[in-house]
Amino acid sequence: MSRRYSFSDDGNSFEDLETSLDKALNHASNNLFSYTNTSNGHGNGSRTNSQGSAGAIPLATMASYPGDGSGHGMARSASAEHNDSSPLIASNLYANHNRSFSSSASSLNATARSLSMSSKRFLRKALGFFRHAHRELSSNGDRLRLSSGDAALGSTSSSQRFISPRSKSTTTTYPSNAISNAKYNPITFIPIILYEQFKFFFNLYFLVVALSQIIPQLRIGYLSSYIVPLGFVLTVTMMKEAGDDIARRRRDREQNNELYEVLNRSSPSALSNEIKLIPSRNLKVGDLVRLHKDTRIPADMVLLQTSDKDGSGEAFIKTDQLDGETDWKLRIANSASQSLTDINSLINNISLIVGNPTKSIHHFNGKLIYHPSSAAGSTSPTSSNETIALTVDQTLWANTVLASGTAIAIVVYTGVETRQAMNTTMTGVKTGLLELEINSLSKILCFTVFLLSVVLVLANGFPLKSTWYIDIMRFLILFSTIIPVSLRVNLDLAKSVYASQIQKDDEIPNTIVRTSTIPEDLGRIEYLLSDKTGTLTQNDMELKKLHLGAVSYAGDTMDIVTDYITSMLSILDSKPSGSMKKRDLGSKVCDLVLTLALCHNVTPSYEDEEDEAAGIVTYQAASPDEIAIVKFTELVGLKLYKRDRHTISLMHLATGKTFDYEILYNFPFNSDTKRMGIIVKDSQRDEIWFMQKGADTVMTTIVNSNDWLDEETGNMAREGLRTLVIGRKRLSSILFKDFVESFQNASLAMHDREATMQKIVSQYLEQDLELLGLTGVEDKLQRDVKTSIELLRNAGVKIWMLTGDKVETAKCVSISARLISRGQYVHQITKINHPDLAMNQLEYLKTNTNACLLIDGESLATYMKFFKHDFFEIVVKLPAVIACRCSPQQKADVALMIREITGKRVCCIGDGGNDVSMIQCADVGVGIVGKEGKQASLAADFSIDQFCYLSKLLLWHGRNSYKRSAKLGQFIIHRGLLISVAQAVYSISSKFEPLALYQGWLMVGYSTVYTMAPVFSLTLDCDIDEHLTRLYPELYKELTLGKSLSYRTFFMWVAISLFQGSVIQLLSQQFQTVKLENFKTMVALSFSSLIYNELIMVGLSINKWNKVMVSTIIITFLIYIGSVPFLGEYFDLEYVSSVSYIWQVAVLLAISLFPVWLSQYINRKLRPPSYAKVQTD
User: What structural domains and CATH numbers belong to the chain?
Assistant: First the structure.
């Protein structure tokens, strides 16, 4: 019965096969020793037999469980020590025991032992290899199953999991915690490498040619002539890939071997719980782990306890490697687990119920079950115990870092089920447009080779020979150099040169090339999709304006706000408590600033006690907007002094008095609600206040009615300011009590918990808030953004700005950044949510393609859903598009649609975690290292520090990379065509016989040591000076047309190759004839002329000489001259040393080169290229 191999735990065929193989090998090993000892005449089964096998190790001891922390599994049980059928471990105990063997028997026995040990060492390595590959294949299967949306690996049909520190069954239920970022494993390395190489047409062609040389009838010349070039290509590629993968595995090994303190791994017989140091890869679900400051979190965990001084259970984590945000996040241990005083209590009194793993790093649903001491022995989640809700505030996701104190946490998800692993996408290998174009040209060359071979066979006359098909195959092999196998190697090496030049450019410091396969695409970009905040702007926020309806404050008038805050105590004291009557202006200003100082998620931190005494504070927050507002309140006189989980303290700088507030509830900002709120209790006045701030689109319906909010938010947005609406509401004790009860019940829901909780907040709190005012925060433009965008627009690049900001703000920033040019009409499409009206809005753009489109996310979603192709076919023609209120997925979808509709190269640039999807979907992804972290930078193909670096990256480095690779590819094709034309001429002159003209080393040396270095030096050439790319950005348009490597230029080089190859070979035959006695003389003349011709052609094609180019040509020439004396097998050396050789070579070169140079010179004068018109000496 056949077995089905799968990655599932049930009926795992890999495990069965491994076990069966292990047992069979062990049995064979024992039989070998039994046979050996029997042949020595010592009886079967005696103790002497076992002793005679000293030095052998039972195979069973090799097969230790991979996850076993005990090492190699060498310990033997007591029964095993007395098992006569098993060999013993080597020991001096038997060194002098029973040495009555004959010399021949001893020799035979020693030989058998040596063979046995060698066999077992080999089998041990084979088993280790097998287990390693099995683990990696299983891990890959788990990852594929999770990414395809299947159920979690450790789950059953239930959507919940019960996790307990006491349960030992979890060790075999969930995936391994080992990290593996390697692209290959021992089984898949060679197949994947071969596939990646032979999916390119010319590599596959050369493989077929090389394999054909195994057939004697098709063999032409030396087998090495065809095998060595292909082998060299594959070896270089495999070494490069293997080196990269080994480096990845080393990084993985460092993380997998990090040791962590596990508190609940003691053996059942232990009297007390001992702390064990366990490698990260061996951590299991349910492990209690003690974490220290600056320690990486090895798996997804739930925080149970912290070393916080006041026992509040607070800890900070750094999440920049997970979500790209550089601020510290506050995490809070549950009060039930925080209060437990010893490890045994944590193990016996705590259990968890959690949902199956998901990708969301901002949401988590779970319950902590606290078992009282009387019920601690129960492991059932349905016991009558205290149940407490768990949220994302209690989580420590894998790959984050504990930033403060010490903490104890329980592992809930491991390996491929962690949030970090589930949000890691395996990006495909990006292939540059130039490689695709060269692949197409190679197919034309292959067809030419086939056609030429058939024509030469048919030209031999009819009737055809009986072996005509063999002749065709031999001609195909003879002309195989037309498809240059070295082309891929040269282009790959050239990409490395370009990457090095980019990274060493002092004008764009800290630029990193993360994907070295697509530098030529930098010179072919036609669409640029950019984020706004942090990309075009600095993400450096400053509060510029306050608006209270009747009056606004900005600039110098902010001093009035400072004066009000200075006299804040007297203003608040004079105001009746909780009065809702009409208040004076000073009271309104103080209420607004006080609300701004309280309604946020900013945490002040001090490096040490000295900084705290001196008032040197650093603010940590998820949003730079919030930090800007808190800095503003400090500037006007109300400073955020202290904050923890339960309290917040403000300091009145004018008097030094502190205001203490109790934090009752906090509702953080998220992209769905677009607002944040807080419930605080004024300890002095015994008042409970709900304060909230958010986007005007959502706050308009929450605050009480007014007649100025919409107008003023629009005015601020037109000034380029980010607006927030501020409101508050006093809560009565009865209303607050009802809210707490309802909110507590909603927080325990395991399904749609977030929505249920938000519904309660809206029902009880978000009704008729008092509108206090409006804030306007400015985000400054990046350095030289205006000039960079203007350069790119003039270069013909169509720029799209995709942002999550509101329409007015995005429009203002676009105008100030010159994304919208002066006088350009802006066609605005907003709030289109029905398909009936959608297409009418696009009528204007069909006839006015110079206009700019401004569209919001809601309208964009409508077009993407109903009129995707129609919409993009119109808007891709526009010079600029601004899309506002875009989600990260919408950004990625836009990039994909532009690529699909136009087929042009798309570049996406961003700086935050929300830009990663867009960056990965682009042909070229550029990430900016900004205040939002490095997530975009790490996911991108190119990492830069400033947006303005992009102009040089495209206009200069993109130009050079594309032009150089185009010239390099054409020269390599020319080199192959040249020798193939010579071969064709010789075959025709030899009565259409498939005879080789050049054989052995001549074929190998021609494309390597004799021509490679000079041709490759073209990667250092440039056609214009750098400053001209900025002075005349219009030159970039020529690159996007692909004129440097087109069918026109390709056939031009084919014509040059036909002319030069024919001239060289025909004149060589004319001078020396094709007779057999003159064959070596003719080969010496024609081959030497080919080499000299190629060197001179390189020299004629160079625009700007440098020392490397000169030296490579001279050194290569000297190498060829120096190698001639060793080519007696192929050349007539006496002829080469004669004067005839010199003048005949000179004549050949003059006739082959002068017409080519003259035609190029005339063409350049009559039709000069664009760059020649602006080039100055």
Answer: 283-373+384-423 (2.70.150.10), 483-507+958-1176 (no CATH), 523-538+779-951 (3.40.50.1000), 548-773 (3.40.1110)
